[in-house]
Amino acid sequence: MFDGYDSCSEDTSSSSSSDESEEEVAPLPSSLPIIKNNGQVYTYPDGKSGMATCEMCGMVGVRDAFYSKTKRFCSVSCSRSYSSNSKKASILARLQGKPPTKKAKVLQKQPLVAKLAAYAQYQATLQNQAKTKAAAVPVEGFSWGNYINSNSFTAAPVTCFKHAPMGTCWGDISEGVRVEVPNTDCSLPTKVFWIAGIVKLAGYNALLRYEGFENDSSLDFWCNVCGSDIHPVGWCATSGKPLVPPRTIQHKYTNWKAFLVKRLTGAKTLPPDFSQKVSESMQYPFKTSMRVEVVDKTHLCRTRVAVVESVIGGRLRLVYEESEDKTDDFWCHMYSPLIHHIGWSRSIGHRFKRSDITKKQDGHFDAPPHLFMKVKEVDAAGEWFKEGMKLEAIDPLNLSAICVATIRKVLADGYLMIGIDGSEAADGSDWFCYHATSPSIFPVGFCEINMIELTPPRGYAKLPFKWFDYLRETDSIAAPVKLFNKEVPNHGFHVGMKLEAVDLMEPRLVCVATVTRIIHRLLRIHFDGWEDEYDQWVDCESPDLYPVGWCQLTGYQLQPPAPQSSRDSQSSSSKQKKKAKSQQYKGHKKMTSLQLKEELLDGEEYSFLQGASDQESNGSASYYIKQEP
Question: Is 80 helix (H, G, I), strand (E, B) or coil?
Answer without folding.
Answer: helix
